């Protein structure tokens, strides 16, 4: 792992099931995450993914790439374009810094309408047991 290394992209199909399951799992019962009619009444064309689901997917992207020794230390993300059902989010990352066994990766998750998520993830690789 070196500064400037690019992680391979990860494509995540955005399904209604993923959006609703993520909202339920994170105990986010806001109607815009499960009720299309309520979402439309509030100005959205459909239900959309919540930030906690996005946060979990960003963490998964890092841990899937770097393996089971990965310990997330800090996840700092910002949402942009919503993730709607039927779209695909593509996560990509670039290693920004490496200090010993700790690194920071800049993350971008884009979909058909723009960047859904941007930010950084700082993590460490724990010693093999």
TrEMBL record:
Looking up InterPro entries in the UniProt record yields: HotDog_dom_sf, MaoC-like_dom
List residues of the MaoC-like domain: 10-104
Protein name from the UniProt record: MaoC family dehydratase
> So which domain of life are we looking at?
Bacteria
Residues spanning the membrane: none
- Would you identify the family this protein belongs to, as annotated? Belongs to the enoyl-CoA hydratase/isomerase family.
């Amino acid at each position: 792992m070196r500064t400037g290394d690019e992680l391979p992209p990860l494509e995540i199909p955005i399904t209604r099931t993923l959006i609703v399951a993520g909202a339920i799992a994170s105990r986010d019962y806001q109607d815009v995450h499960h009720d299309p009619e309520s979402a439309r009444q509030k100005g959205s064309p459909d239900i959309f993914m919540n930030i906690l689901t996005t946060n979990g997917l960003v963490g998964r992207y890092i841990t899937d790439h770097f393996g089971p020794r990965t310990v997330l230390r800090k996840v700092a993300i910002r949402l942009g374009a919503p993730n709607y059902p039927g779209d695909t989010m593509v996560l990509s990352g670039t290693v920004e810094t490496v200090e010993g066994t700790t690194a920071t990766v800049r993350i971008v998750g884009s979909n058909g309408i723009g960047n859904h998520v941007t930010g950084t993830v700082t993590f460490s690789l724990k010693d093999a047991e």
